[in-house]
Amino acid sequence: MLKLTRYVLYDIIRSRVVLAYAVFLLLVSFSLFQLEENHSKAILSLLNIVLIVVPLISMIFTTIHYYNSYEFIELMLSQPLSRTRILLSEYAGVAISMIAAFLLGVGVPVLVYSPDPTGITLIFTGAGLTLVFTSIAFLASVKARDKARGIGSVLLLWFYFSLIYDGLVMLILFAFSDYPMEKFTLLLAALNPVDLGRISIMLKLDVSALMGYTGALYKDFFGSNTGVLFTSAMMLVWTAIPLWTALVIFQKKDM
Question: Which stretches are transmembrane (predicted)?
Answer without folding.
Answer: 12-33, 45-67, 88-113, 119-142, 154-176, 228-250
